[in-house]
Write a structure and sequence with these properties.
The complex is a heterodimer of chains A (about 150) and B (about 500).
Chain A lengths: L5 E5 L3 H13 L6 E4 L2 H9 L13 E5 L8 H10 L8 E5 L4 H10 L3 E4 L4 H17 L8
Parallel strand pairs in A: 1-2, 1-3, 3-4, 4-5
Helix pairs in contact in A: 1-5
Chain B lengths: L2 H73 L2 H24 L4 H29 L3 H13 L1 H137 L16 H39 L4 E4 L1 H11 L1 H6 L2 E5 L5 E4 H17 L7 E10 L2 E7 L31 H11 L3 E6 L5 E8 L4 H7 L1
Parallel strand pairs in B: 2-4
Antiparallel strand pairs in B: 1-3, 4-5, 5-7, 6-7
Helix pairs in contact in B: 1-2, 1-3, 1-5, 2-3, 3-4, 3-5, 5-6, 7-9, 9-10
């Protein structure tokens, strides 16, 4: 486990993306963050041009996923990640404004590892992200399927 | 069919039946009368024939007496004498019979008197002839007989009797014609009457058939209308449900999408706040540090004069922004919660209401103790309903009752219940500050509050409660006066099921 973990952030709202990034950095996490503002580009990056996910084989990834994307549903992305043999081991953190219990339940059922509601209260939000940073630093990203 | 038309038709039917009855009565009366008349006529016809017969019998008896007398005169046989005497004995009764029979006819009576006189004369002649024969003077008797035969007595008898018979013949003709006429009349009357009855019956049948057809048509139309009505109601219900769903979706999406920029506003406001602190710290560092002095931690340098004022203004502006954002977030959350409530499926279950309310009250015990409020729970009817919805309804109302007590007055809150016609009626009353009558509707509107605004709140609770009560197929109302406490009344079906909700939606 020598490869550093790359954080993939799929978030259409650039403000949110910036706030998330700042707070991650504040918590002392310096991993590379790759941002996408729409689902299509993120999917291409994750699954490669051939759509098999082979391109990310062996890479340690942590995916931050917003559910409300302009071009596709975050739920679909989560589902495809968890169905792909190369990607399913990567932890997925769902970050969204919805605190609808049905949606949270559905995300966990599909295999999301953490579900964070973006609270308007900034302190809570910052805390959540910082804790997430701590979480990043302690989790052992399992080796991707080879 | 209009009411007027129906009334007219009824009128015609009654008229027809009346007419039919009238015709039947007339025919019956006419028939009885005519039959009586015919019998009478026939009696007279028979009477005429009888009179004729009797006159003929009388003549016959006279002839018999004459011929028997002649035989006696010729032969002197006692059998002729007996025969003669028998015939003479029959003449007077026959004459009496004729007289009796013709007592009604003055003409005949006059003839009878003439005949009677002639017969008396003739009988006298008979008696004399017989006497002569008995005395043994047949020649004189023969002469007498010859004289009598040549005399006008016999002719008179013949003529009078002939006239009487002719008279009876005339009467017979007359009476027969009368009887015939009566019978013809009776027959034609019966015929015409029957025809009329048949015609009336036909009209009646036609009318009945027409009204039956009209009724069938009306029934068919009614059936169609019913089917259409059901279809229309279904259609409207579906439309309403769709519109309702759309509003729910709209509210959900709007509140959800409003939240996203709010996260940014709040986030970057906080970032600005941090930046502001840094900036003012620097300003302090630049202006407050005595030149050439030892370096001090910039955080410890207090701002002074216009810089301090600037910092305060900056913080105040940020403070307003943050509190507004917080408020907006609460409103959006409230809308989200309401739409979520509107979409939640209810699960009916049996609820021991008293235990259930006691549970809610104990969870509010802390607030109640703070407000020095006592909560009394009276016996409550058990119901079948959605537990979570009921919990929200009652905890909101009890919480309100505790929250809006009068300052300095020990609170007394009562929860009562009763049942009526399949509904459970709950009352939550307090001795609190009360609600002005003009605010009674307003308090149920979203984001609206009433009275002195000295307690935190968004104006959501009662709107939410009322939505829930309605979804549970119930109603709620308030009765209150300012400074005289409030009573909230909730009426819920004792047994809730999905059909209540469908009826409600």
């Amino acid at each position: 486990m020598t490869l550093p973990v790359t954080i993939i952030m799929i978030e259409d709202d650039e403000g949110h993306a910036r706030l998330i990034e700042r707070n991650i950095r504040r918590s002392g996490v310096n991993n590379e963050i790759v941002s996408f503002t729409n689902g299509t580009a993120a999917m291409r990056h994750l699954f490669g041009a051939d759509g098999t996910g082979l391109a990310q084989k062996g890479n340690a990834l942590l995916i931050l996923l917003d559910l409300n994307l302009p071009d596709m549903s975050g739920i679909d992305i989560l589902k495809q990640i968890k169905e792909n043999k190369y990607l399913k081991a990567s932890p997925v953190v769902v970050l969204t404004t919805t605190d609808d219990s049905q949606e949270i339940k559905r995300c966990y059922e599909l295999g999301c590892n953490v579900y964070i509601t973006k609270p308007v209260n900034y302190e809570n939000f910052a805390n959540a992200i910082r804790q997430l940073g701590l979480f990043f630093s302690v989790i052992q990203v399992p080796p991707a399927a080879s | 069919m209009t009411a007027g038309e129906r009334r007219r038709r009824t009128f015609w039917q009654i008229l027809l039946i009346t007419a039919g009855l009238l015709v039947l009565t007339l025919i019956s009366a006419g028939s009885v009368y005519l039959v009586n008349k015919a019998r009478d006529d026939n009696k007279w016809v028979v009477h005429t024939i009888e009179v004729e017969n009797q006159v003929n019998t009388l003549l016959l008896e006279i002839r018999r007496a004459e011929s028997a007398l002649r035989g006696y005169l010729l032969t002197l046989g006692p059998e002729f004498q007996a025969d003669h005497q028998k015939a003479v004995a029959a003449i007077i009764p026959a004459l009496d019979r004729v007289r009796r029979l013709t007592g009604d006819n003055p003409e005949q009576r006059a003839s009878i008197e003439k005949l009677s006189a002639a017969i008396d004369t003739r009988l006298d002649q008979f008696a004399r002839e017989l006497e002569l024969i008995r005395q043994g003077q047949p020649a004189q008797a023969t002469a007498l007989a010859r004289e009598a035969a040549a005399g006008n007595t016999i002719a008179t008898i013949g003529k009078v009797a002939g006239a009487m018979i002719a008279e009876e013949e005339r009467l017979f003709q007359l009476r027969t014609a009368n009887a015939d006429r009566s019978q013809t009349f009776a027959a034609s009357m019966t015929g015409i009457g029957s025809g009329l009855v048949v015609v009336l019956a036909l009209i009646s049948i036609w009318l009945v058939r027409r009204s039956a057809r009209a009724r069938d048509d009306a029934e068919a139309r009614l059936r169609d209308a019913n089917v259409n009505l059901e279809a229309t109601v279904d259609e409207r219900t579906a439309d309403l449900r769709e519109a309702n769903d759309e509003i729910q979706r709209f509210a959900y999406i709007v509140s959800h999408d409003l939240r996203s920029p709010l996260v940014n506003i709040m986030g970057f406001t906080s970032e600005l706040e941090e930046l502001g602190k840094d900036i003012f710290r620097r300003i302090g560092g630049l202006t407050g540090v005595p030149a050439g002095g030892p370096p001090v931690d910039v955080a410890d340098i207090p701002l002074d004069g216009p810089d301090k004022q600037l910092s305060a203004d900056f913080s105040e502006a940020l403070g307003f922004i943050k509190s507004s954002i917080a408020r907006m977030d609460r409103l959006i959350s409230a809308i989200l919660n309401l739409t979520r409530e509107g979409r939640r499926e209810f699960q009916p279950e049996r609820i021991e209401t008293r235990n259930f309310i006691e549970g809610i009250v104990s969870s509010l015990a802390h607030q109640a103790a703070e407000a020095k409020a006592e909560i009394h729970i009276e016996p409550l009817p058990n119901i079948v309903s959605d537990r979570l919805a009921l919990e929200q309804i009652f905890s909101n109302l009890i919480d309100n009752a505790i929250k809006y007590l009068k300052n300095g007055v020990p609170g007394e809150i009562r929860i009562r219940g009763r049942t009526k016609l399949g509904y459970a009626i709950f009352e939550i009353s307090d001795n609190g500050r009360g609600i002005d009558a003009r605010d009674h509707q307003r308090i149920f509107d979203l984001f609206r509050r009433a009275g002195v605004q000295d307690k935190p709140g968004q104006g959501i609770g009662l709107a939410h409660v009322r939505t829930l009560v309605r979804r549970l197929g119930g109603t709620m109302s308030v009765s209150s006066e300012l400074n005289a406490g409030s009573t909230f009344t909730i009426t819920l079906p004792i047994t809730w099921n999905a059909s209540n909700r469908n009826a409600d939606q």
